[in-house]
Amino acid sequence: MNIQIKKWLSFVETTEAPDGQAPLRKIAVVAVVDNPCAGRRVEDLKPMIDASVELGRQMGKAFVEAMLPYKVLSYGKGGVVGSNGEQEHVNALLTTAFAEPVRSAVGGGKAWISSMTKRGAPGTVIDIPLAHKDALYVRSFYDGFTLTLHDAPAAGEIALIMAGANRGRIDARVGGLRVEDVKGLDGLS
């Protein structure tokens, strides 16, 4: 199965930080694809899972480029399947097969990638959870990215989303594990 990307969307939010710290840059890239299973129940979704590897490669490249000049230090994934599809269709495209090329593109990614999926139509709002890419329990990186997909997905489409940030929350102070407490971690708290 070959799944072609029909449209790319990108979202950027930059919040200035005090005292010369790096700004908080949050981004999301969205790849809109046709849903090869739209309108029917398909028992074996492995062909979609296998096809997601190439989508992950393309998404990883776009994701890293969208974060420039910063590095991706936190991330989350998600997607919205159009009304002629099942939530399971978008989940089939977001498994580990998809995620491994994204992890490679961001330079690691030891932690699992938080995710959110749903069915929806153009105008759907979705919240993508964010966490540190290498240490899930670094609390200052718990965040999210909310986006509205104004023109996707159509009934027979799927919108795949990768969201991320270049640092933890500005002025995070609720305690817990810090970046500097984890040997070998790179990133701002």
Q: Enter the CATH topology name.
A: 60s Ribosomal Protein L30, Chain: A
CATH architecture: 2-Layer Sandwich
Task: Write the element-wise H/E pattern from the N-terminal end onward.
Answer: EEHEHHEEEE
Largest sheet: 7 strands, mixed
Low-confidence stretches: none
Oligomer: single chain
How far do the termini sit from each other? Answer: 42 Å
The total domain count is: 1
Structure description:
With 189 residues, the protein is α+β, with helices and mostly antiparallel strands. It has one domain (5-181): 60s Ribosomal Protein L30, Chain: A. It has helices at 46-67, 87-92, 96-106; strands at 5-15, 24-34, 74-81, 114-119, 124-132, 143-149, 157-165. Strands 1, 2, 3, 4, 5, 6 and 7 form a 7-stranded mixed sheet that branches. Helix 1 packs parallel to helix 3. The longest helix has 22 residues, at 46-67. The chain is globular.
Q: Which key phrases capture this entry?
A:
single chain; 189 residues; alpha+beta; 60s Ribosomal Protein L30, Chain: A; seven-stranded mixed β-sheet; 3 helices; 32% strand
Short description:
This protein is of the alpha+beta class. The protein has a single domain, classed as BB2672 (60s Ribosomal Protein L30, Chain: A, 2-Layer Sandwich), CATH 3.30.1330.110. It has three helices and seven strands, in the order ββαβααββββ.
What topology emerges from the helices and strands here?
Blueprint: E1 5-15, E2 24-34, H1 46-67, E3 74-81, H2 87-92, H3 96-106, E4 114-119, E5 124-132, E6 143-149, E7 157-165
Parallel strand pairs: 3-4
Antiparallel strand pairs: 1-2, 2-7, 3-5, 3-7, 5-6
